[in-house]
Specification:
This protein is of the alpha/beta class. Helices cover 41% and strands 16% of the residues. α5 packs parallel to α6.
């Protein structure tokens, strides 16, 4: 892991993990003992299955952060066996089968499709392999779950859009670009956003974007502009930064010289740069280090046969499981005003990475040095 990533892991984990670890204590601090001494030990295999590689976060943040934390918790003896499904649910199910065959001790699964993974989760459980649902609440008999407060994400986005629109919130129509229906988080983002926006704006068009793909968001946005009229669209709710990029391209292609405010999520580098330049209004900064640390800590404890009561900070219901032990991490609204105090301060990006030649003037105006 490079120096910047180590800073991110240390700085963010030291702060936000307080909600899940400092307040509750670790499993060892709670005095838990391994239930199976044969399972206890540091030489464990952790199967890590991530859903796709189009979104920058998975390869750049989640994977290395989880690997680092597992190494810390196992004194360098634990092994992370990694697979990426590249947005294919069938591939991910096959990857689970392979992990079971390879006799991993625990699985961390970020599901491509939360329903489609349920059968594979049951296979793992039947094989005696605990499953930690990561970032998305997988269905089936999962043992633990960690993510962000996903309804709050949608609320944060909705509030930011209302703030940007001000007293002109009903002077036109907004377009809502939600995420993929196969992602349970997308439903929560959507619900949270609607709870804030309904009745306060006119929603002209709304889409559930297939596979979260920016090109699909671009196509949908072009259709919305054609149906509503480009001058009638005063704002766009975009559930993440990747789609925001496709949306903004569609707005520019339509010939809009002044772009309406567009939301986002994930604080991707390209999204942060668009915020600096004024093309995108905001993103949601989700500190990946504490989420990754929580997943690793729960996975290692489960692999060793230890309880995780001292790690969790609440319990969550899935469509197939009740009171799943969970760690939920708070989120932050990221705008031009707090880039220095969030992603730069936490070491996610350096000013040099954000402020390339193309964005140098905008960075100077925003006080990024």
């Amino acid at each position: 892991m490079n120096t910047r990533m180590r800073r991110a892991a240390v700085a963010v984990a030291a702060g936000a993990m307080a909600v899940s670890l400092a307040a509750c204590g670790s499993a060892k601090e709670a005095g838990d003992k391994p239930k199976d001494s044969a399972a206890a030990g540091d030489a464990i295999k952790v199967g890590l299955l991530l859903p796709e590689n189009q979104t920058a976060r998975y390869e750049k943040f989640d994977k290395p952060l989880i690997e680092k934390k597992v190494a810390e918790l196992t004194r360098g003896k634990g092994e992370v066996v990694y697979a990426n499904a590249k947005q294919d649910a069938t591939t991910q199910n096959s990857q689970v089968d392979t992990m079971i065959t390879n006799k991993v001790n625990v699985l961390i699964v970020d599901a491509v499709d939360s329903k489609a993974i349920a059968g594979s989760v049951k296979k793992a459980k039947d094989a005696g392999i605990p499953v930690v649902a990561y970032d998305r609440l997988a269905e089936g008999p999962i043992d633990a779950y960690t993510s962000f407060d996903n309804e709050e994400v949608g609320k944060v986005q909705g509030k930011a859009l209302l703030e940007a629109l001000g007293d002109k919130a009903k002077d036109g129509q907004i377009v809502m670009m939600n995420g993929s229906v196969t992602d349970p988080n997308a439903k929560l983002f959507k619900s949270g956003a609607h709870s804030v926006l309904d009745g306060k704006v006119n929603i002209g068009k709304e889409y559930d974007t297939v596979e979260w793909k920016p090109e699909n968001a671009n196509t949908n946005m072009a259709a919305a502009l054609s149906a509503l009229g480009k001058d009638k669209v005063i704002g766009v709710y975009s559930a993440n930064d990747g789609m925001a990029g496709g949306i903004i391209t569609a707005l520019k292609t339509a010939g809009l010289s002044t772009l309406p405010p567009v939301t986002g999520q994930d604080a991707e580098l390209a999204g942060v740069q668009r915020i600096v330049s004024g093309e995108q209004f905001m993103s949601v900064y989700k500190p990946y280090a504490p989420e990754a640390a929580a997943a690793a800590e729960m996975a290692v404890a489960l692999a060793k046969g230890e309880k995780i009561d001292g790690i969790i900070n609440q319990k969550v219901d899935s469509p197939t499981a009740k009171a799943v032990p969970s760690v939920l991490i708070p989120v932050v609204s990221l705008t031009k005003a707090n880039i220095n105090d969030t992603v730069v301060k936490d070491g996610v990006y350096t000013v040099e990475e954000i402020c390339t030649e193309k964005y140098a003037a905008a960075c100077a105006a925003a006080g990024l040095k």
